[in-house]
Every structure is written in C-alpha cells, then in structure tokens.
Amino acid sequence: MSMPSRIPLLVAQLPDADALLPYLRQIDANRWYTNFGPLAMQLEQRFAASFAPTLTAPTAITAASGTAGLELVLGALELPRGSSVLLPALTFVATATAVIRAGYRPLIGDVDASTWLLTPETAREYAANHRVAAVMPVATFGNPQDVEAWDAFVADTGIPVVIDAAGAYGNQRIGRHCHVVFSLHATKALAAGEGGLVVSYDAELAARVRRLSNFGIDLDRGSQVFVAGENGKLSEYHAAVAHAALDQWPVVVERRRAVQARYQYLLQQHCPGLGMQRRPENGIYPILVGLLPVGLQARELQPELLSRGIETRQWYCPTLDRHPAFAGCAAGPLPVSHELAERLLGLPFFIDIDETQMQRVGQAMADLTIGVSA
Q: Is the terminal CB of the chain with fewer CB neighbours within 10 Å at N or C?
C-alpha cells in the first residue's frame, strides 16, 4: 500500500523574484547595503504609518531579527543588571533568551486558560509577590494583547511592558505606554525571510534602540560607545523583501482569513471536541493550534497522524521552566501552562492548503479523538 501524500506543517509565503526586482534595482542604484540604508528607513516609515494611518504615528525601528528586537528594547530600558523580567511559560524560547542576553533574569509566570496569554491581571498578582522590573507578555500564536489594559498596568505600577508580538503583525495594536516587537521571520504571515521591528511611542527609548542596534555607537557624542550594543541592523536586502511583502499584504490578509474560516469550520464539524484559543475571529494568524480533549496528549497522536502523511508540532513544549537553561526561574506553580503544553497540537496550516488537505486533517482528527469528551 502506498504512503499517503504528505501535508506539510508550514509552507512559507514570501514574495517571488518578480516582486523583488524593483527593490533590488534600487539597491543596485544606491549601492548602499546595510547601516540604515534608504530602503530600511523607508520601510520603517511604511510600518509606522500602518499602525496609525489617521493619528500620530509611533516610531518604528527595523532590526536584524525579532529576537534582536527584543534584546534591543530590553537593553534600552536600562534596568539594573540581574533584574527580573516577567514572561509567560507558554512561549518560544527566544522570549527568555532575549531576557538573559540583555543581562536580566526571566521570571516565568502562568497563562490564562482560554486566551493562553499572560494577562495584566495575572501580572499584577506576580508583581505583588515578586520584584518585577519589567513584563514581557507574548501575543501567543498571533493572539493580540490588550494594549489598553497593559497601558493601565504601566500607569498604575510604573513597571515597563514590552509585548513580544513576533507572529502578530496585522493583529497587535500599539499602546501608548507599552512597546511592541514583531518578527519578519519566514514562518510569519508577513515575512521577509528574517528581520524584526520595534514599535513605540517613546521617542527617547526608540533612539536608544537605534543606537544599541549599531553597536551602541553614539553619533551625537563623537561616535563613542557609552553602552555596549550589538550589530542588530536590518540589511537592505531583507528590507527589499519586506517592502515587497507589504505590497502584497492586502491580498495575503484576505486569503489567510478565508482559509482560516473554512479550516476552522471543517475542524468543528469533524471534531467538535477540539478546543481553540479565544482570539479575534478576523485576525491574521501564522499557525493553527488546537487543544485536544481532556484525556488525550499531543505526543500520543503525532505518530499516528504522521503515518497518515500529516505533519504536526507541539508548539512551545516543553514550557520555558522545563528547559535546563531556565531552570529555577518559575515564579510559582504553572498548572495551566503545563496542562496546555500536553494537549496543544499544531496542525498543518499555510496559505495554499486546499480543501482536500483540510478535509484529510479534519477526518484524521475525528478518527483519533472520537469518543473522548472535551
């Protein structure tokens, strides 16, 4: 019997060569390849305008990657070395590595059972019992954070907030008092292959981020380095890809929304016991993650799904506190995160997934979850 055709977990969607060509020709004409080149600067203006088309726009600063963006904005906060930064247990490891590389200590907290997010309410509880110097909530799986609630948290506590919105471009808004970092990695809905973006209404912090991204060189004070930075700048070539991706963004948004709506409908029809993250229905999401019914664990289903040609992944499993690099960093028990990590299963999801593939995934999930109550 022949093996079933493979349904990949992800298929990156980046602009093709024809879409890139006008921007590559600009690079050829400019002969400027990095170090705050014209394409990167124009890209920052396009991004800034996209967040506030009719109001005063925030400052947007490009970075070499989303992780670099996190490190840069954390460094720009200028917290005392060794300060604790609160972050959720359910996130990609880069959230925690950025904290450590910035010279701070991760303080790992639990998430909400329905949104799978670290919330301002929970952060207030942790801040009442721990010395929290900053909070880095995550827009988990593209689910946007409530910026008004986080702005209120900053105003009430004086604790700065940096939102790791790596996969949430198109969903995550910018708060007046909290700073936001996006990723342009190839796996994101808006992708440049690699790259990052720091967005903030704090002009002074934005200036420090830019300076740190250029090794910390202070051009206004004799090109001296007062605070060590890194080479965190976005190249002109990556900026070219990002420009082309922004050109195509309206079409990508409509296609992703249509695929998401159809796919989730089919999954609900096939396996109503499969739980979903509580999030805005019209969002633009890079991945699709379901919550298996109580009694099932993702690692038990994965081999059977793979035998049917269906690739899956346990996103963010193990949780941060269970990685040796972050041992001892938990702020306390993490029951929700630990339960989610056992039951969350990333399913194939990409812009070109077709009806037959979605039906195959839905039927396979039904076969494997039937008879298990949610």
A: N
